[in-house]
Amino acid sequence: MSKVVLAYSGGLDTSIILKWLQEEKGLEVVALIVDLGQAEEVQEAAEKAKRTGAARVYVEDVREEFVRDFVFPALQANAVYEGTYLLGTSLARPLIAQKMIEIARKEGAEYVSHGATGKGNDQVRFEVSCLALEPSIKIIAPWREWNLKSRSDLIAYAEKHGIEIPVTKEKPYSSDRNLLHISFEGGILEDPWNRPPDDMFVLSASPQDAPDRTTTIEIDFAGGIPVAVDGEKLSPAALLDRLNRLGGENGIGRVDAVENRYVGMKSRGVYETPGGTILHIAHRALESITLDREVFHFKDSLITRYSELVYNGFWFAPEMELLRKTVGETQREVTGTVRLELYKGNCRITGRKSPRSLYDPQMVTFEEEDVYRQSDATGFIRLNALRLKIRARLRGQDTGARGNE
Predict the structure, then answer these.
(1) pTM
(2) Quick check: 363 pLDDT over 90?
(3) Which of 13, 35, 176, 220 is catalytic?
(4) Catalytic residue (choose from 35, 113, 122, 242)
(5) Within this chain, do residues 299 and 387 fall inside the same structural domain, yes or no?
(6) Fewer CB within 10 Å: C terminus or N terminus of the chain?
(7) Which among 118, 147, 170 is the end of a domain?
């Protein structure tokens, strides 16, 4: 039998696909579960894959690798898609694809498969990444082949074949969880006017129910990478987990967005990203005192391009490699400490300091000082206004000419 490596989560889609690949394609299925921080879901998924008929089940713990090699580089770039989405799912997909190819080589598998639909972004992220890493791999995308047309069809298929499923007709929205976030899509969320149900959220308390007290934290950075919380050095995964708990307790990081998918349609997603939100705000604050103005502005101009490449699935593309190296160069001096206050959904900067700070109190003080000659500003202003004066005079001549006609 030919082998296929299936990126398996234990969710509705991949639960059905595992059985479908066996029955409809006649393939030996090797289930790959990539542990990105799904908590108890990982072990449950492994047991379920065996019960559903997987020939072998691999569980790859990549939590540290995920945060270190994907989340933190995106943090250094301040990557946010369309101003709201911190790319939690997008950053996980290239790593899953990388592990799919590794297991396919180990197993001698001819195929890989995934549960992404033909309408979504994940099909692009998985397949472009797989082909970039292994050009000869063959890909099976069931959603583009089978005659199951909807979530309801999948639920019916599962009931017919006795497959356990994690969703019901009453709660048909799907979710994707890792250490950076959890996302919710589908079902009642497909109407952008519908309010997300309160019992849907997993990682964060409602801001209204968060504690009536402020939580103050300090985060240390080295070269743009967070390394400690409140003075305690932590591994990448442990640090993000700590901030997830602190942020979640205080209602930080909920986002309800309608975004533009790469395939051309708009979609509505609801996200919880407590730790990532805190880190993003803290990193920006530290950059404000450690980056040169022109470097800061140039780097900001790259945010949209960087975020689009991640969102669209081009993590392993040459232009992305170039961008990551460029961003990395800007982070050499981004070292220091940021103090924040968390309170009922708000994350506020209350202090930032750095041994590499470009902020000079002697320069900006309103008190008496000798390091800056205020009279120098006169020539600076005149030179910058010169082209505007010339333009205004020219317009005045044109107005006068028209008035004389």
Answers:
(1) 0.92
(2) no
(3) 13
(4) 122
(5) no
(6) C
(7) 170
Tokens of 19: 């059985």
Are both 301 and 213 inside the same structural domain?
yes
Catalytic residue among 129, 174, 267, 307: 174
3-state secondary structure 367-382: CCCCCCCCCHHHHHHH
**Average pLDDT of the segment spanning 154-174:** 76
Q: Is 56 a catalytic residue?
A: no
Q: Is 220 a catalytic residue?
A: no
Residue 122 appears among annotated catalytic residues: yes
Determine phi and psi for 297, rounding to 5 degrees.
-70, -40
158 close to 12: Cβ distance less than 8 angstroms: yes
The span from the CA of 390 to the CA of 401, in Å, is 17
93: annotated active-site residue: yes
Regarding whether 158 and 26 lie in a shared domain, the answer is yes
Beta strands in 87-186 (DSSP E): 111-113, 138-140, 174-177, 182-185
> What tens digit of pLDDT does each residue of 112-125 get?
999 999 999 999 99
More confident residue, 361 or 105: 105
Residue 343 lies in a domain: yes
Residue type, 277: T
pLDDT surpasses 70 at 313: yes
d(C-alpha 270, C-alpha 285), whole Å: 26
- In the numeric block, the tokens 């583009």 are attached to 144
- Regarding whether 112 and 66 lie in a shared domain, the answer is yes
Two tokens at 222?
A: 């080295």
d(CA 143, CA 388): 59
For residues 9-34, average pLDDT: 94
Beta-sheet strand order (sheet of 138-140):
56-61, 28-35, 3-7, 111-113, 138-140
Distance CA 329, CA 246 (A): 31
> Among residues 9, 15, 90, 93, which one is catalytic?
93
**SS3 state at 226:** strand
